[in-house]
Amino acid sequence: MTVGVYLAVVQFFFALCWTVYVAYLPQLAAQVGIPKSAVIWILMLDQLIFVLSDYAFGVASDRAAKVVGRLGRLVVAVTLLSCAAFLALPLVAPSGSAPLFLVLVVLWSITSSALRAPPLTLVGRHAARPQLPWLVALSVFGLGVANAIAPYLTLQLREVDPRGPFLLASVALALVTWGIVAAERKLVHHGAAKAASPAPVELPAIRGFLAAAVLAAVAFQVHSFLNSAPLYLRFAAPDQLAWLAPVFWVGFNLALLPAGALAKRVGAWRVMAAAALLAGFATWAAGQAPSLNALIVAQGLAGAGWGFLLMSAFATALALGHTGREGQLGGALSSVLALAALSRMAVLAGGWHKTPEVQALLAWAPAAGWVAAGAVLWWATRRRVA
User: Fold this and answer.
1) Could you tell me which of 301, 338, 371 has the C-alpha nearest to residue 217?
2) pLDDT the model gives residue 192
3) What residue intervals traverse the membrane (predicted)?
4) What does the pLDDT look like over 189-222, one tens digit per residue?
5) Cα separation of 81 and 91, whole Å?
6) Domain segments of the chain: what residues?
7) Residue 59: its pLDDT value, please?
8) What is the spatial distance between Cα 32 and Cα 128, in angstroms, rounded to a whole number?
9) Cα separation, 269 vs 383, whole angstroms
10) Half-sphere exposure of 161 toward its Cβ, with a 13 Å CA cutoff?
11) Spelled out in words, what is the top-level CATH class assigned to the domain 2-190?
């Protein structure tokens, strides 16, 4: 439990850095002569780097985890470099050097992947199998809390000098990351009597899992970042969006601990499949909501569905990779999430979401994507091990 809470704190500050970065990126880019229209392309570059580096760090973490203590030290070293690059962004921007600014952005993007797959590799490699859902749920909880406060935080940061938030976020993340070495030792100590691993997983099960993850991740991106605001604007004023957007993440956070308990009882794979269907139904209900109150309930249920799904997806990835590929499968899942975000940004950059044809497609895409993900998972159940 202590290690799970620690991972939640790490993921909270990690996600907080991303919130600060996105909030100030237009301002910092303008200082180095990058037009506002190009900011979306920088964010797309970030996601493309995440697609590649998350998987690469996952594979590297599998190799490092073979020697006790090596992975923790690797994560600390890379994260310190990441924090230094992050802290340098608001310090370099006033100089007006666009090339140097972009180099720091790329360096930060690459090195930040050290805090996605590798910590979960430690959990999957050393924690006892019954503890996996709880530890994953607590880790994901940190991300959920950070996303819930992101709209409020963004509002408060508008008039604040960027050097302060960048300093606080980077220092806080660097300090908490030091504890990962101790967390690794604790997991190794308590996992000494870890139960024998089950039989190797068949490749079709892994393919089915990743296919379902792609469908679910795209559905999440479309619903949360393209559809939710227009849905709220049917009943609320634009200035209320910052207070309504966290409803999804409130549902997400409330679902995580029950999701861990349920996954421990019936299996993460089954929870993931059922959660996909729940999210699909809630998304459909949100589109049909006759009032703001009904929409809020539907959004909360959609967030709960995504919470159940994301938590069980990472637990499933660790279970599928139990033969020494925990990092590889966890990194692949993180890459899928980044790829879905990249796709959503590409739609925004191209302005396709403004056309009537695409709007009609987006209206039902989340429900269809989540239901399709559930169907794929149920189909692949015969080859599951989670």
Assistant:
1) 338
2) 47
3) 5-26, 38-59, 71-93, 99-120, 132-153, 165-183, 204-222, 242-261, 268-286, 292-320, 332-352, 358-380
4) 665 444 445 555 567 788 889 999 999 999 999 9
5) 16
6) 2-190, 203-383
7) 92
8) 50
9) 11
10) 6
11) mainly alpha
